Each structure stands twice: as C-alpha cells, then as structure tokens.
Structure prediction request, 527 residues.
Amino acid sequence: MTVLTVPPLPQDSRPPGAAPDAALLPPRYTDQWIDGAWVASDAEGRLVVTDPSTERPLATVPAGTARDADRAARAAAAAFEGWAATPLRERVALLRRVVGAMEARADRFAEIITAEVGAPARMARHTHVGLSLGMAAHCVETAASHTFEERVGHSLVVREPAGVAACVTPWNTPLLLTVQKIVPALMAGCTVVHKPSEITPLHARLLAEAVAEADLPPGVFNMVVGTGADLGTALVTHPLVDVVSLTGSTRAGREVSALGADRIKRVHLELGGKNASLVLDDADLASAVAATVDQMLFNTGQTCLQWSRLLVPRDRQDEALQLVAEAMDGYVTGDPRDPATDLGPLVSAAAHERVTAYVRRGTEEGGARLVLGGPGRPAGLDTGYYVRPTVFADVDPLTTIAQEEIFGPVLSVIPYDDEEQAVRIVNGTRYGLHGAVWSGDDARAARVARRFRSGLVDVNGGQFNPAAPFGGFKQSGIGRECGTAGLEAFLETKSMQLPQGAPGQVVGPRLRATAAARPADTERNDG
Ligand code: NAD
Prediction:
C-alpha cells in the first residue's frame, strides 16, 4: 500500500518580489489517486494552487486530462461488482476506518483549508473540519441502519448501488461537500471518482491519503484533479460513469446536465442560491438581524446557503440598518492564520474581481444606498484577496445585486410593505435553496416558511440538521443530499415480482400466461 504524506505547506514570510528560496519552493505534485495507488498523470499542463491571503503559490498539481478521467473511471468500473457485493457490515467497518483516518488528520485538514480556501483557522478547525467529521460519521451510521429491501405485496423491492459515481465538488466548504457525497456513495455500494475543485485540490489529496490508510479495495475510491472544462467534462461524459453528483455553480449545473443528457445519466445537482432572511413585523429585530449578519458573513460570504437578502418591514428599515452596523462592527477581517480573525480573503483574484464588480454595480443601478463597506480593500490589507463587508439599503428586489449570487460578504437590505409582498420577493429569484423566517410567533413563522419556494428554511433560528434532506428548488438544483435522501441518491430501485401471488392480486397484462402464474379463470380463456 502506497501512502503519500502531504508535506507541510511552506511557511513563506518573504516580502513580495524577493528572490526565491529553494527550500520554500512549493510542492510539485504529479500524480492522481487511481486504483489504489498514486499514479503519474500524463498531463503536460500544471495548475497552481494559490494562498489567497498571500497571493503566493502553495503547490502545483497536474492539470488532469481526459486520459486521467478514463483511467479512474475504468478502475472504478472494474471495482464495482466486488464492492457492490461486499456485505453492508464490511462496508460500514471500512468506512468507519476512513472516518478514523480523517479524524487523525483533523489538524492537517484545517491547516490546508486555511491555506487554500483562506478560511480563518478557528473556523477551519471547528466548522469546516469539525462539521465534515460529524457529517462523515453520520452518513456511515445512516447507511448502517438503512432498510435496503422491503416487501410491497408480492414484490420484493430492493435498493441496489447505482454504479460508478462521479462526485464533482467546489472549493468553498470543500471537505464537507465532498464527504456529503462520497461517504453515502460508498456506503450505497457505488464506486467513486472524486474530482475536487481545481482551486482547492490539496485537502482532497489528504482525503485520498486517509482513504488509502483505511485499505479500501483498489479502485473503490479514486481522486483526480483537473479543470471542469477538461478533466471534468471527460469524467461526466464517460460511458462507464452511471451517476454524476455535482455541487457547484448553476452555470456548471446547466453544462453538466446537458452533458449527461446524451447518455441519460443520473445527474444530481446542488447549485447556487440567493437566499432571503425574512423578518416579520412581530419578530425580535435585534436577534434576527444579528443571526442574519453572522450567517451572511460565514466563510467571507462564500456559501451557497448565505442569507444575502435581508427583508424587513419598511418602517423598521432604519432600525434594522443600525443593528446591522452594530453587528458587523465586531467582525475582524485579516490574516486567516491569526486566531482573532473572523473574515479571511476571498478565494481567488477572479472572485475578488467578481465581488468588487457586483459592489460597483450595486452603487450604480436601481437607487440602492451603500451604507457600509464599498468596492475598495479593507485598510491595511493590500496583499491578499480581501474585500470590505458591504451593505446596501433600499434595494429594489429586481436589481442585479438582489437577483444574482454574489458569493461574497455583501448584504442587500430590502424593505417590504406587507407579508404577501415579502413572500413574493423571497420567491422572486431563479434560485430556491435556503431561507430564514423570523416571527414572535413560531406557528406564524412556520406557516410563512411553508410558502418559501426553497429546499431549506430555518424557522426562528432552527439549526442545521445533517439527517434532514439538503438541496434546492428551481435553479438551485435537483435531488437531495444528507440523511436517507443522500444515500438514496446513489441507489437504484428494483422491483422483483415473486411467484406466490397474494390473494386478490391484480393480474398484469399478458398475452400468454405461464403455467406457474396462471390464475384458474385466465387459464380457461387462454389459447
Ligand atoms: P464551479 O461551478 O465553478 O465548480 C464546481 C465544480 O464543478 C468544480 O470541481 C469544477 O471544476 C467543476 N466543473 C465546472 N464545470 C464543469 C463541467 N462542465 N463539467 C464537469 N465539471 C465541471 O463552482 P465553484 O466556484 O467551485 O463553487 C461555488 C458555487 O458552488 C456557488 O455557485 C455555490 O452556490 C455553489 N455551491 C452549492 C452548494 C449546494 O449545496 N447547493 C454548496 C456549495 C457551493
């Protein structure tokens, strides 16, 4: 068994532009995890993984090719029959070992996520890694107690692994969103090819190392790095891939959906969001605003679940803005390795450019008032992809900043006149992932939550539940992850009609009944 140890990341404190120090050159990885071994990629191109807080390279990885995708898909297909036939209790034991191997690497995962995502150290350890470990263990135990077979009348309905699963993941909460797919897929009996985001492949290498340590049979889990356009496209269109599970932008979802259509692949999509936090007129405004600001800023606003729209009664908007300003005052933006930091940089130069352009657009379009932040960098943070947390007030719900996913710490405060109008605004985007509703009356909050056209709604501060289905309506996706629903995404259903017909059974259409199945009166009319 080859076990790769991801070397410590270079701690580079040279000033920008200083001469290179050979000892600090970033690691150069050349391989992919395929068929139970680190295999050299034949990629000629390289991808640079950048630390978004220093703008310096952390490592380079192969820009994986269609051939890498092919080798991984073939390995997964060859391993499928054996893994699918492995008794559930053995799969459970092996996956518990994977979780154990991940737990043993918790600090390394956190260090890498801080380095490649820019997630503040405290949050990386407790949320990115802590939640991922909890989620992985939860997915194993969900499968361990799942009912894979049931009798429906004279039929035996069995749930079987769907085949080879291509699990394509984003960079923003990379470990969590990966385990949320690969653990249920493996527990279902699927074999897996994981394609992490090309922006953050280093945590995925460490995850492959943890899987290697748990000694899964070769080919059951494979991990290949490359861009979406090259390796990703080759993987999701590969004839040996049966299920594609993508978490990413709505743009990528549209492409992958189209790519899968030719071979009628099962495509599961977890996509973008433009989520609303709706404060009703009888709510405790202070606690609703504080919770919304905290959630909006999590991961520097780079989450699909982000409440990027705050809806408040028009006559309470000024009060709400005062509370927003007070809440945001307590958050520290800076070096993600500093334990005091709450907000790190955005993930990349492209993200910085995109978010800045949206903030500019907000100041130019539709009469919104910029009340906090703005397009410039935070004071004293000239290196790194840092932005200023920004708040707009009096936002017209139909303008760009209120309709499009910005994926940064930008809040649109939208005043409304009555509950009907508020619900229309909440539902008035192409997305439908998440939302929140706040009221002094839990029953009223729940009643309004039912009217949200979204897959998730938090009612008066209800907390995330890993057992509950997770996913979106409309252009936020198709299908659900987490809990039983997440497992079923990787299962096919087969109905086996057993020979002993139940009394009173309806006889299906047949030209010639077989002797065994032929009821007495059908037999008389036969032939
Ligand atoms: P992205 O769409 O750029 O990339 C996501 C993944 O898809 C990457 O691995 C990428 O290489 C791959 N990809 C892109 N195009 C592809 C193609 N044509 N074929 C195959 N693979 C392809 O998204 P991102 O920037 O990494 O992540 C941010 C986005 O993800 C946001 O829109 C966010 O809302 C969304 N997201 C959704 C959820 C959810 O659960 N709904 C969770 C996290 C992030």
Summary: Residues 1-5, 518-527 have pLDDT under 50 and may be disordered. The two ends are 65 Å apart (CA to CA).
